[in-house]
Amino acid sequence: MKLGIKKVHENEWLIHIGYASIKMDRFSVELLNITLEHLIALEHGETHSILNSYIELGRKIKELTPAGVQLLVRSIDNQDLLKLMQVANDAELSEMVVGNVGSILSKQLSADLEKSIMPSEGDAKVAIKRIVEKMFDLESQGKIEFMDEMTEYI
């Protein structure tokens, strides 16, 4: 079976599977990639959760520089950020976000994390999608850059 991914424009990808072709945005391509990884795990008897795929995309915040996190946080709704932090339950992510916002917002987010009820799966997915789409938008504008152990400058 023929399988391929081709970048058409900055936020448009063409996916070929067999004789079918479909255009997707970057968020959908990233989500498809994670979902395919989960399908491989399912073949080995492990479990899969769509929400976990969204959370994995949201954790890409950890690949940003502190300046990138600050720019992203100013560009998104605080409630979306809170929902991601609640469902991700990731101390490193929470510390990175809280450490890169102003002191008032830092206190508010910390208090809300302790007091707020867990969002529904649907609300969490919508919030995470908005965050990740904004991250990809800022990256395509050259305002932020994802950094990992493979990032090198020559």
From TrEMBL:
Gene3D superfamilies reported in the protein's UniProt record: 1.10.220.30
Residues in Flagellar motor switch protein FliG C-terminal domain copies: 60-145
Taxonomic superkingdom: Bacteria
InterPro entries in UniProt: Flg_Motor_Flig_C, FliG_a-hlx
Alphabetized Pfam families for the sequence: FliG_C
Protein name per its UniProtKB record: Flagellar motor switch protein FliG C-terminal domain-containing protein
